[in-house]
Amino acid sequence: MEKQLNRPCGQCGQAAIKAINLKDTWLNESWKDFPRVYISCDVNQYRCANCGALAGNRSSAKALDEAARESIKDQVSHFINRIKQRTRLTLVEIAERIPMGYQHLSDLKNRRSFPSYHYWSLLYSIYRDPDLLDRLDSRSSDAPVSKFG
Which pTM value belongs to this model? Predict the structure, then answer.
């Protein structure tokens, strides 16, 4: 639901500032290291309906930041839970197969930690194709041997 704010746009001067709920949408711009973020919780973004300029303030920017963080933490937790279901592996076994410590993986699963984009994309790839775990198994001995020792 959109609501109109009673203030003029700083760009065009029109009184057309609207608060738009971003829940269940993709951010149109990159956020921190993430090229795209799917927002899964309620948060408003203020834009001018006339020229499209952003019209938020510090608190609305902070709310968007928090919504993006929480959405990413939710996604990673979901990815890990689905990986466990599909592969029937424990967190310890998953952590052994990918370059991530058990405690970090557990913290991500339980939303106690925020992932880097690297780990988000790795877990997303495994979520999409659980067979990647077999190819990523860090315990395998088929790694190339360096001729330098």
Answer: 0.81
